Amino acid sequence: MPDSQPQPPPPPSSSPGPADPSSLLLCGARLTDGRTVDVRLSGGRIEAVGTAGSLAAGGTRACGARVDLGGYLLLPAPAEPHAHADTALSADAEGPVSYEPQDVQRRATEAALLQLGHGATAVRAHVRVGDVQGLGALAAVLQARRALRGLAELTTVAMPRVLTGVAGADGLAVLRDAVKMGASVVGGRPDLDPDPTGYVEAVLEVASEHGCPVDLHTDAGDPARLARLAAMAGGLRPGVTLSPCGDLGRLPSEVASRTADQLAAAGVAVVCLPQGGCGGVDRRGAAPVRLLRAAGVRVAAGSGALRDVSNPVGRGDPLEAAFLLASRYGLSPEEAYDTVSGSARAVLGLPEVRVEAGFPAELLAVRGDRLAGALSLAYSRVVVHQGRVMARTSAVREFCSSAASVELGLPRQGRGRGQLS
Is the pTM of this model over 0.85? Predict the structure, then answer.
């Protein structure tokens, strides 16, 4: 998996005075407000932000390492609120998807690293439990989580199939066992249960018992069912999330608006999937993000399927999700990026990130000087998690020598002997 492995930070440059090995200086980064700054990180947090060059001498203490971010836009890091770690990267497999623990763990690890390379320093992964998988897939993803500790944050949502009736008794027992094993969120797809309302009641009961968040799959095509869910979920802490809610946009406008108001009043968040669907829903199509946001619903954007049978070309790239929301669904670049960063982190229960002193050092540097351009051509990236550079992606574009390229001054980033000519 050469395209998804985290890259080590560049070697520290020399600086006067004793170096603090736990600190890192990001030099010459551009912020969305147009300023060019130095940012010093220490202990997993942003320690100082100053004008470019002002922190280079290290102040009271020199930095252990420096990263030149000239030409990069520095942003709060994205988070991935909707992934499927147990089936990720399985589209090319011959025959049925393997749920052997070693296969699930390998795929989950590779998927998390790929998404880290895109910039997502935290991932919420939905994992099926019960039926033929039992708890084996969950155990494998939890093992991947332990292996990734320090590189990226991976949390799991336990997804049972049926929770009501005679068949649901086993599913309910498995769900409780999944939480005891380490699943930090309870979820599933109530639309598949013979009694969707009973399914939601069961999930909310387990969540209340263990103090877990709830994250449910639904197409959101039944307004009456959504109204009942909102009534049951209102006030539950640490919160309820629905995704992808694609059918909500197909309802009559007055019905959709009323439903959005009910979700907002209940504090229910929505995660849309603009890059495509996932195995937990039948139909594709993004939720009506502008309608939901106008009603006061917190809207985040996730990637959904990552190269599995539901979306064989899924990229798992939060910046692509933001790009689609800006280009197809009418959000501004700033609003679109918030869905994959600030709002996504809030849905996951993570602390807010700003490029200001005192905030967590969860950052993404993207080549460019404006957010719109970064979303359009987000090729080169530097990812910072817990104050350390965890992944780097560098893209070089070259044009062959020609009269047109010389006359127009097209960029040519030569690499010596490998340069195009």
Answer: yes
* DSSP strand pairing (388-393 vs 214-218): unpaired
C-alpha span between 189 and 213 (Å, rounded): 15
* Tokens found for residue 190: 């109530």
Contact between residue 97 and residue 53 where contact means Cβ atoms under 8 Å apart: no
For the beta carbon of residue 61, count every other beta carbon within 10 angstroms. 15
Q: Are 298 and 347 in contact (CB under 8 A)?
A: yes
**pLDDT tens-digit readout, 314-336:** 999 999 999 999 999 999 999 99
| DSSP structure class, residue 308 | B
Q: 74: which residues sit within 8 A by CB, 6+ positions away?
A: 26, 29, 30, 31, 37, 39, 355, 363, 364, 365
CB burial readout 259-269, b (16+ within 10 A) else e: bbebbbebbbb
Give yes or no for a contact between 343 and 299, defined as CB atoms under 8 angstroms apart: yes
**What values do phi and psi take at 286, rounded to 5?**
-80, 150
Residue 310: the pLDDT is 86
For residue range 5-14, list pLDDT tens digits in order.
334 444 433 3
